Structures are given as C-alpha cells and as structure tokens.
C-alpha cells in the first residue's frame, strides 16, 4: 500500500505525486536542493511520522506536547540554555519543523493558540488519512475532532492531551542523552526508574462516538462521546473510557454524560456470528468479569483544576448524582457485587502526573480511600473472598485426601499401597461374591492366582496319576484272580 520511508507515504501513496515531494537525483548538491525545496523546514521523515501519529490520536496538539510524547529524550537536552523559553524552543525545533512541512503540503493547519500563547496544530482531511495509515486505522476508527479545537484556547483538548501523556509516562532513551550535563542525565535516569505508564500513543483514541441511536459511522443525536479510549489488554486493561473536566462544567452536566454512557452500554446489536450482544462488544473485545463482576466497562474521570470549582467537590457531587449507575449491593462475604453497574473512578491530573496509573490516586465511587487503577476498577474484596474460599476448599480437599490416605490398604505380601482402582476392586461385591484376594495388590494377586492355578493343576495331575495307578493296580489284580480261577 505504501513504501516504507517514501515521502508519498505521508499522503497514503506509494510514491510522490507530480509536483509534490520531489527528490533530486544528481549528486549530493541536487539532493540537498530537492530536500530544501520539498521540506523547507528541514524535518525528517521520522519526525513527520511522529507528528502524524500524535495528531492522528490527539487531533489538536502543540509542538511541546508532540515532542514530550514522541521524543522524550529531547526534554533532557539543551538544558544549558539561559531561559526556559530558549530551552523549549530548542527541544521542540525538530517537531515544529515537521509541522511546518506538513502544513506546506496541506496535511496540517494552524488551530489557534492556547491560553499560554502556544500554537495549536490540527490535521486536515488529507492529514487524517495519512495519520490513519501511520496508525493502521480506518477512517471510522479515527474519531472526531476535539471539543473547542482552535477556539477559546483549546483548553479541553490540551487537558485531554496532558491526560494521555500522564497515562503513558513516556520514558527517554538514555543512550540519546549521553554527554549531556550530569543534572540532565540524572533527571532522565530518574524518569526511566519511575513507575511505568500504560501503552503507547497507538493504545489510545480520542473523541470516540458511543451511539445510543444510529451507527458507529453515523451516530444519532443524544449519544456519548468518549474523550479518550484506552485499549491495553497486555496490562490487564482491555477497555477503559476516560473523561476530562477542567472544573468548569456543572456537576449535573457531567453526571448526564453517564446517562448517555449507560444507554450505549445497554444497547445491543447483532454481531457477525448472528447473535445479539452489547453493541460495544461488536467493536472492542474484553473478557467477561474483567472488572470484578461489573457488567459494563469502566469510566475514569480526570479533573484538572483550571476552573473555579474544586475538583474534590466535583467528584463528590458527580458521585452522588450518578449513584444509580455505580452503586453495588452487599453480598455475604464482606464485598459488594456490581451486576449491571459501571465502575466509575476519579482522580486529578496533578495526582496522575505525579504518581501515574500504578499509584494509589484513584477513588472508586462508593469506596473509602484511594487505590491504584487496577484495584479501583476491579473488585479486590470479592477477589480476596473468592481466593480465601478457594484456599479453604483446597485445605479441606488436602485434609480429606490425607485422611483417605491413612485408610488406604497395604498389600499383605509386598507392603505396597493399593492403587485407587485396586482399593475399589478389593471392596466390590459382585453376585454376592467379594474379591478373592482383598489383602493383595494387583501384582501380588496375579502371582497368587497363578500359584493357585499351578497348585490346582499339580493337584489335578497328582489325582489323575493316582487314579491311573489305582486303575493299573485294579487291572493287575483282576488278571491274577482270573488266572487262579482258571
């Protein structure tokens, strides 16, 4: 479909289109001239691929976010420059050049500026198609454009991007920071040593429709749109929906999203096997009971303290308004069951950045304290109860087996323990007759039976010989008596 490394691959073509992506063929000078003409910003194919993959997922992002996501080692270079602005300009130069080159070829456009003054870049329709090739995703899998992209500082889109970065926690390649100042190298090593994040950029999608009416391709009005969808079965997260909030929306507005989620989760559709199943299962695969005993996939709420509302108060208010969707019932054993419910988990972007998904920073609605992400969306108390019950069953089985072993018969001849089959046979009664040698193992019984057979055979032969001898003596006596009479 496309040639690796070919410039035209960025547009989904096997080679350069006429008048675009020309490559000079006459020596180094011609090659450099062609390169300057095609990519005046001097970007490499690798950096353009980074940009396409990042924007294909995030839809709107700054050069700084793309660099931190795609080339985290650059964050530990240029550290000797005088100001933070100069350091940022230096470490993002390569990706800014790639963005400029993609813009020249109609694959990206400017999307306004953030509230901090940074340029936001978006992909065009052709850019999304090229990104789909880089990500190996079809058009229907690319998702929609982010909320308020290019307007009002794109604050929601920027928060979504920061959540993805905080979840992935990109780690630098230490080989690429060799020779940098000691402080920079130490910081890079500390980043590598920190707890891992989840997945890579290809594990994520943004602005994904969850239709309650209509189709995946043409969702109807009133459906949910997931800010982020994470698929990472390799770490036990086959499906996780993530919602971002800047503490600017009213709690009832956030709570209403979960009504839409539930309408989608309860919607069924016929799959390719002809059977009805939850519609979300026709697109994503997740084992049953992956989230404890909850019937529906989990949703993570990440609050970013930008607006005037307090993140903690927002969590508490949303939890109260969505109780019908998440509250379980107590079961005998000291845990709750969540049949037909959604695991709803909340945290803040600040805590997520600091500790990552492995840290105890997630509050499961209806529980006390904080847990790591896996425990928060699961049911650890239920798992512990089931584990204890299974262990008790194993102990009982072991005790019963030990008691049974103590009663196992031993062969009266060789002293070998009876096998289960021999034990059963030795006690069986058929036609009012028991085992002929209940005190012997199989081998000894065979030998005993053979000895008995030989003994019986010898007895028969002795009796036959005795009979013959008696007949011979009788015949001889008859002969003498006959001659005497004559």
Low-confidence stretches are: 1-37
- The helix-and-strand class reads alpha+beta
What is the H/E string? HHEHHHEEHHHEEEHEEEHHEEEHEHHHH
Order of strands across the widest beta sheet? 4-5-6-9-12-13
Tell the overall outline: elongated
Find the count of extended strands (DSSP E, 2+ residues).
13
Distance between the termini: 126 Å
Characterization of this structure:
The protein is of the alpha+beta class. It has three domains: 39-194, no CATH class; 200-407, no CATH class; 411-479, no CATH class. It contains 16 helices and 13 strands. Strands 4-5-6-9-12-13 form a six-stranded mixed beta sheet, sandwiched between helices. It has a three-stranded antiparallel beta sheet with strand order 1-3-2. A two-stranded antiparallel sheet has the order 7-8. Strand 2 and strand 3 form a beta hairpin. Helix 2 (45-58) packs across helix 3 (63-70), helix 2 crosses helix 5 (93-104) and helix 2 crosses helix 6. It starts with 26 loop residues before the first helix and ends with a helix. Residues 1-37 have low confidence and may be disordered.
């Amino acid at each position: 479909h496309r040639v690796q490394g070919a410039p035209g691959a960025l547009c989904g073509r096997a080679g350069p289109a006429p008048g675009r992506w020309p490559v000079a063929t006459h020596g180094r000078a011609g090659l450099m001239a062609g390169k300057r003409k095609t990519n005046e910003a001097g970007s490499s194919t690798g950096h353009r691929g980074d940009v396409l993959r990042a924007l294909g997922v995030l839809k709107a992002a700054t050069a700084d976010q793309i660099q931190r996501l795609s080339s985290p080692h650059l964050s530990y270079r240029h550290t000797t420059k005088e100001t933070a602005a100069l350091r940022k300009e230096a470490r993002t130069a390569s990706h800014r050049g790639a963005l400029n080159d993609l813009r020249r070829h109609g694959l990206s456009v400017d999307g306004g500026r953030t509230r901090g003054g940074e340029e936001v870049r978006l992909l065009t329709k052709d850019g999304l198609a090229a990104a789909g090739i880089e990500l190996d995703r079809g058009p229907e899998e690319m998702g929609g454009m982010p909320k308020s992209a290019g307007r009002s500082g794109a604050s929601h889109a920027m928060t979504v991007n920061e959540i993805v970065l905080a979840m992935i926690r990109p780690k630098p390649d230490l080989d690429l920071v060799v020779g940098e100042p000691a402080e920079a190298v130490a910081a890079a090593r500390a980043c590598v040593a920190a707890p891992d994040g989840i997945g890579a950029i290809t594990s994520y999608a943004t602005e994904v429709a969850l239709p309650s009416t209509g189709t995946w391709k043409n969702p109807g009005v009133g459906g949910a749109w997931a800010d982020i969808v994470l698929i990472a079965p390799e770490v036990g997260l086959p499906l996780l929906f993530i919602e971002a909030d800047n503490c600017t929306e009213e709690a009832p507005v956030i709570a209403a999203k979960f009504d839409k989620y539930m309408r989608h989760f309860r919607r069924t559709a016929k799959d390719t096997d002809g059977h009805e199943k939850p519609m979300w299962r026709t697109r994503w695969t997740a084992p049953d009971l992956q989230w404890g005993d909850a019937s529906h996939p989990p949703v993570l709420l990440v609050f970013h303290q930008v607006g005037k509302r307090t993140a903690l108060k927002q969590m508490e208010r949303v939890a109260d308004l969505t109780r019908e969707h998440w509250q379980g019932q107590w079961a005998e054993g000291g845990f709750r069951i969540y049949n037909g419910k959604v695991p709803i988990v909340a945290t803040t972007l600040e805590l997520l950045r600091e500790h990552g998904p492995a840290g105890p920073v997630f509050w499961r609605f209806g529980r006390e304290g904080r847990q790591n992400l896996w425990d928060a969306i699961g049911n650890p108390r239920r798992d512990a109860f089931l584990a204890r019950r299974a262990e008790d069953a194993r102990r009982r089985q072991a005790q019963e087996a030990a008691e049974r072993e103590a009663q196992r018969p031993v062969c009266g001849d060789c002293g070998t323990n009876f096998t289960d089959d021999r034990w059963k046979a030795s006690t069986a009664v058929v036609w009012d007759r028991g085992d002929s040698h209940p005190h012997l193992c199989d081998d000894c019984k065979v030998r005993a039976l053979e000895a008995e057979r030989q003994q019986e055979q010898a007895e028969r032969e002795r009796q036959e010989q005795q009979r013959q001898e008696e007949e011979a003596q009788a015949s001889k006596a008859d002969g003498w008596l006959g001659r005497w009479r004559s």
